[in-house]
């Protein structure tokens, strides 16, 4: 199993380019199932989850071709509407084939998904929303079996804000008969990017990016050209890396307007953040102040940046409260950070982080995607060598991580 070996203590300097967002690419790849002609995508990052999704689509009969960051998907000949357990167990986002398959073919059989071990992660709201649109759904032997000769537009209030739930229902509603109104919808930029792509495919969607999305169903959708939005979480992770190491880093293909809550917290910590329409520059003298964090749906502080910001707090001056309100088990990094000398106590869904003057290198284990990223950040400032085991999680979400960090001057190598 691959490991990362990181020699800490080097301020990061230079510039890198941020990749297309994993969490936008995955629903957009699944949206290809709705189209009768090829969907042509660019800025699709080379990530494990992207590969898994394409393999899943190919299993259903989608013709896929991939070169560099471009992917072309032709779903004109689908021969099965089944997503088997073996193909979805590693990836939560595989649930996103459910809405498109049901809407276009009237049937879907999708295994209950896997994904990061950060909580129980039910899909009840996806199912209830499709039932509100007239689908008959049963769960049998770990599979969601859904049928509807034609989905019908409906008004559906989501009890909790769910990102993939909103995406699944928005995709399904595109081919439903009549108008669907999704209330308490997720406002994440990846939902907006999916809606932008669907609109180019011929969908009639209003309100994406607000908490009420209205979708007027159409008869059919076609392919289009679409560039996936930049990855705000990847960008945020490198911003924290620059801040913690006391460096100066320019991120190209990064949008500050998608990162307001993170930028606000970095500024509170004493970091300089400048931006233009397509880049963000972060400068830090390495002297950081502790900042309290409370995760919540967009535009509040993203749960996918909680672990990274906790890493920053481990070496900041003062005491920070980090509260996780989205997932019940998203503090898996705490124990590993403690191995590096961090002082953290967990009380329910809040971690109290007391900054220490320095962390010390040790062997740690990555447990989920962003926990892994936070350990990389801690390792970049720890004295001596840190070995991070089980880094396959990182390959789900960070394209060319070692190359990008090396380009910024970090000493990072992958060994087996
Ligand atoms: C592929 C993708 O885009 N993943 C992101 C997506 O995950 P994902 O879409 O799975 O997360 P959700 O927004 O659905 O989850 C939010 C909360 O709602 C709960 N819930 C969700 C659906 C449901 O049917 N029932 C229910 O109770 C979840 O357990 C969680 O407590 O949004 C999360 C929250 O921003 C991010 O951390 C993930 O990176
Ligand atoms: C939790 C994440 O991913 P997923 O929803 O795909 O498990 C993430 O991107 O941080």
UniProtKB/TrEMBL annotation:
Entry binding sites for phosphoenolpyruvate: 22-23
Q: Where is the Enolpyruvate transferase domain?
A: 7-405
Entry's localization field: Cytoplasm
According to UniProt, the reaction catalysed is:
phosphoenolpyruvate + UDP-N-acetyl-alpha-D-glucosamine = UDP-N-acetyl-3-O-(1-carboxyvinyl)-alpha-D-glucosamine + phosphate
Where would you say this protein principally sits, based on its record? cytoplasm
Cross-referenced NCBIfam families: murA, PRK09369.1
Protein's recorded name: UDP-N-acetylglucosamine 1-carboxyvinyltransferase
Organism for this UniProt entry = Methylovorus glucosotrophus (strain SIP3-4)
């Amino acid at each position: 199993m691959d490991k990362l070996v990181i020699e800490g203590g080097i301020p990061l300097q230079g510039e890198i380019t941020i990749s297309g967002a994993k969490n936008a690419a995955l629903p957009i790849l699944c949206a290809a199932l709705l189209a009768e002609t090829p969907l042509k995508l660019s800025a699709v990052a080379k990530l494990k989850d992207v590969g898994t999704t394409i393999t899943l689509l190919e299993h259903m009969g989608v013709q896929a071709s991939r070169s560099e960051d471009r992917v072309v998907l032709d779903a004109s000949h689908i021969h099965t509407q089944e997503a088997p357990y073996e193909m979805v167990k590693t990836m939560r986002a595989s649930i996103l084939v459910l809405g498109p398959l049901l809407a276009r073919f009237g049937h879907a059989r999708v295994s209950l998904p896997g994904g990061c071990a950060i909580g129980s992660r039910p899909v009840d709201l996806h199912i209830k929303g499709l039932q509100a649109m007239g689908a008959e759904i049963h769960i049998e032997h770990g599979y969601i079996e859904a049928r509807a000769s034609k989905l019908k537009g409906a008004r559906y209030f989501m009890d909790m804000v769910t990102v993939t739930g909103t995406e699944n229902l928005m995709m399904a509603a595109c081919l439903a008969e009549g108008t669907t109104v999704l209330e308490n919808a997720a406002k994440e930029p990846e939902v907006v990017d999916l809606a932008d792509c669907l609109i180019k495919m011929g969908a009639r969607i209003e309100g994406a990016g607000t908490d009420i999305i209205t979708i007027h169903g159409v008869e059919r959708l076609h392919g289009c050209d679409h560039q996936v939005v930049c990855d705000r979480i990847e960008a945020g992770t490198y911003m924290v890396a620059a801040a913690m190491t006391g460096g100066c880093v320019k991120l190209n293909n990064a949008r500050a307007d998608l990162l307001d809550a993170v930028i606000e917290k970095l500024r509170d910590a004493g970091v300089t953040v400048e931006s233009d329409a397509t880049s963000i520059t972060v400068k830090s003298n390495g002297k950081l102040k502790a900042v309290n964090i409370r995760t919540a749906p967009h535009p509040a502080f993203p749960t996918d940046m909680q672990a990274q910001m906790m890493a920053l707090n481990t070496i900041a001056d003062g005491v920070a409260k980090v509260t996780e309100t989205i997932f019940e088990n998203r503090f898996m990094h705490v124990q590993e950070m403690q191995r590096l000398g961090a002082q953290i106590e967990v009380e329910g869904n809040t971690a109290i982080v007391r900054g220490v003057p320095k962390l010390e290198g040790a062997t740690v284990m990555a447990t989920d995607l962003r926990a892994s990223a936070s350990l990389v950040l801690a390792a970049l400032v720890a004295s001596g060598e840190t070995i991070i085991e089980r880094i396959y999680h990182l390959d789900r979400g960070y394209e060319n991580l070692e190359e990008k960090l090396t380009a910024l001057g970090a000493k990072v190598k992958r060994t087996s």
